[in-house]
Design brief:
Blueprint (H helix, E strand, L loop, with lengths): L11 E3 L5 E5 L2 E5 L7 H22 L7 H23 L8 H37 L5 H31 L14
Antiparallel strand pairs: 1-2, 2-3
Length: 185
Amino acid sequence: MQIEEQDDGVPEISGNGYPKQIIWRQKVMLLDTFYASQCRGIIKIVCIAMCFFAIVLVCGSQPVNDERGPALFFCFLGILVSFGVLVEYTFMINTHISATKGFIIESLLYVVVSVGLLVSAILLWVFCAAHWANMNPAWATMPALATAALFLCSGLYFVEICVLINDARRCSWRPPQPTNSVLPH
């Protein structure tokens, strides 16, 4: 494969192999274009869409106190984390860090987002949906839907943690070590 000099800044796609190689400004970039169509990529896209939908529902609910703030923060954090990890795997940045560190960072981010969304859903349910159900039942619909969306987002991130752990277990198999046992003569 030869790299031709280009001055116009237009990327050149070379080959039909995997991973896809793009030459842009005399640098070779590798792209994993199949990641978004695999299980983990689809879950990330669904998480991004669901967090955006939850943001819309949370913004549409009438607040009692400041129970919408944590929900909006953790939904936005969930979108950032999912999009960041999607970009990381698509541009194959994960090949430049160790698998253990990448697993720890990714799982820690998913745990923080999942627990944050769960706590935000409980706060919105207790302080907003229950309040409006007692005061004005017509205003309780939107907080109840927002709460359900937050619970679903939290569940999706929990599923993402389970899939990540399953992939890590499958990819980190080590053969059993021989034991030093003394057999009777």
